[in-house]
Amino acid sequence: MGKAVTDCACPNAQCAMFGKIGKGNIVLHGFLKLKRGRRRRYRCEACGRTFVSSVGTPYHRLKCTRAQFDRVAALSVEGMSKSGIARVMHLSWNTVARWLQRAAEAAERFSDRVLRGYMLTELQADEIRTFIDSKKRVQWVLAAIEVWSRLWVSLVLGRRSYRNVRRLLADAFHRGECGRIPLITTDGNRYYRIVLGRLFGRGCIHGRIVKTFRKGRVSKVERDLSIGSEWQLEEALLYSEDSDKLNTSFVERLNLTIRQGSAYLRRRSPAHARQGECLAGQLELLRCYYNFVRPHMALKFGREIRTPAMQAGLVGRRLTFRDIFTAVAEFLRLMALAIRVRCRRQGLIPRSALAL
Ligand SMILES: [Zn+2]
To answer: 336 CA to middle of ligand 1, Å?
Structure first.
């Protein structure tokens, strides 16, 4: 009998121990030999099924190396289109599309799990306009950034509606913690004020930046305090290490990073998204890259350049795509839960944990 392991769970949805971690039912079961290297195999004592360590990660049953997979993800978040990646990496377009979809799903799970418990003192929110398929189908990318750590805390794709603004702000605040009264700066969109009023009452400071454009240039900037009093704003700005007046510069800088990191969002791009899911997936991957992998030049301390997640105290070091894609053992339990809930809702029997 093999040695019991505690850090993974049975991926067989029909097994009684499905998704349960640390119950002692998983034992080591030799190795799977690959062309290059080998993968650890496990066996579940409860159902007798064997599985490989890559189950549940995007690397499962990959015909290429994990390094190639990581490189495809990295090229995508540095703004290369799928066709471009396919040419550079000598892969077919379909392979690239499939890999990126898998990578995006893993990135979304990772963000959902790890982006919690950050401190929220200054938040800025803004929207990017884009379109899906035809220019008539306008879509907005709503993004919120925590200014002190530069953490991209929340992302919503869709119409510029009350519901989506609420989703954006509620997500940012439910995952984080407020120490002082938070300072929130947004553009002139009227929904922000309504949503913040309902979320906080008078427990926040909300400033609006209304820009008037003339011939494509900003001709006038109006700053307007919509929630909170002047002295509260002065105090918040005094405490702020980044802002000395109301501004949306940090979220606008993030918007630029987003545009540069996505072939879909480049201006006049011929590679605009044909399907909403592709854009949403790519943005989730980009968000993971921005928060956890990419060193942020504004967070340079001596020789160390931190990532926003390091600055926010969520992780201790710069992560790599490998870290993000393989951080799956502890997710199996959550995945299992999600599958069960979904299957129960649809009246189906879960096929396996890989059905995600
Ligand atoms: Zn089992």
So the answer is: 12
pLDDT, position 244: 87
User: What does pLDDT average to over the chain?
Assistant: 86
H or E segment and range at residue 9 = none
- Tell me if 154 is assigned to some domain: yes
Domain that holds residue 196: 122-253
Give CA–CA dist 64/69, Å, rounded: 7
- Interacting residues of 285 by C-beta distance below 8 A, sequence separation 6+: 73, 76, 77, 100, 103, 104, 107
Distance (angstroms) between ligand 1 centre and the Cα of 347 equals 22
How buried is 47 (Cβ within 10 angstroms: 0-12 exposed, 13-18 middle, 19+ buried)? middle
Distance (angstroms) between ligand 1 centre and the Cα of 16 equals 7
CATH of the domain at 239: 3.30.420
In whole angstroms, what is the distance from residue 29 CA to residue 52 CA? 9
How far does residue 18's CA lie from ligand 1's centre (Å)?
6
pTM over 0.90: no
Give 332 Cα–ligand 1 centroid separation in angstroms: 13
The reply to whether 19 and 128 lie within a common domain is no
Per the CB < 8 A criterion, the answer to whether 286 and 77 are in contact is: yes
- How does residue 354 score in pLDDT terms, banded at 50, 70 and 90? very low
Whole-number Å distance between alpha carbons of 284 and 276: 12
DSSP conformation letters of 207-231: EEEEEEEETTEEEEEEEEEEES-HH
- Please check whether residues 148 and 246 belong to one and the same domain: yes
Q: Band the pLDDT of 1: cuts 50, 70, 90.
A: low
How many angstroms does the Cα of residue 9 sit away from the middle of ligand 1? 8
**Dist. CA 166 → ligand 1 center (Å):** 41
Residues with CB under 5 A from ligand 1 (ion): 10, 12, 15, 17, 44, 46-47
Q: What is the pLDDT of residues 86-137, one digit of tens each?
A: 999 999 999 999 999 999 999 998 899 888 888 899 999 999 998 887 778 8
